[in-house]
Amino acid sequence: MTEGPYKLPEGWRWVRLGEMARVFSGSSAPQGRKYFEQGKYPFVRVQDLGRHGITTELKETTDKVNELAIKELRLVKAPKGSILFPKSGAAILTNTRAILGTEAYIVSHLAAVMPNSDVADVLWVFYWLCNVDMSKYIDNPAYPSLRLSKVMEILLPLPPLEEQRRIVARIEELMARVREARRLRKEALEDTERLW
Question: Where are the beta strands (DSSP E) in 45-160?
Fold first, then answer.
């Protein structure tokens, strides 16, 4: 049994990310227009995460690759439901996270986590990882990068699946309220500007 930073409720346990999920990274970005011409397969870059911020449904990407790129370049495909975050460069410090809403090819500057669905709910892992400051796992701040071996060592609390889903449902309910409050605030600001 893995020791964690604090005692968990009965039935919960501490696990390392690599024990309950596949952790991997993408491939080098294709070089040359020929790999993007008439592309129809999403290719996720770090900028796509930056544009969308924290999201549970990343589908839109700036670039799409074609069959030629897939055949010639051995691109890494991440399944729908994979959790993505930056693993190299200053983008690590933004702590952006996304869940793929469709299968997509991913760039090597991204790490992907695909939880074992028999053990963990993807949203449970996602919300936990949203609270992890990845800058703490960087070896050299002058050249920020995350080693996958270190990412696999990240501890997370794991309640039974049913409990994970109950907690996630509550989080989703609260997030919906936050989104509505933001919408109303934006609307009020726009009304105020119109009045001026």
Answer: 55-58, 63-65, 77-78, 83-86, 98-100, 104-106, 110-115, 155-158
Of 61, 50, 39, the residue nearest 85 (C-alpha): 50
Q: Report DSSP letters for 135-184, one per residue.
A: GGG-S-TTS-B--HHHHTT-EEEE--HHHHHHHHHHHHHHHHHHHHHHHH
State the DSSP H helix or E strand holding residue 127, giving kind and residue range, or none if neither.
Answer: helix 122-130
Q: Cα 166 from chain centroid? A: 21
The type of residue at 154 is I
Q: What's the whole-number average pLDDT of the chain?
A: 92
Q: What's the rounded Cα separation, in Å, for the pair 77 and 43?
A: 9
Q: Are 49 and 128 in contact (CB under 8 A)?
A: no
pTM of the model: 0.88
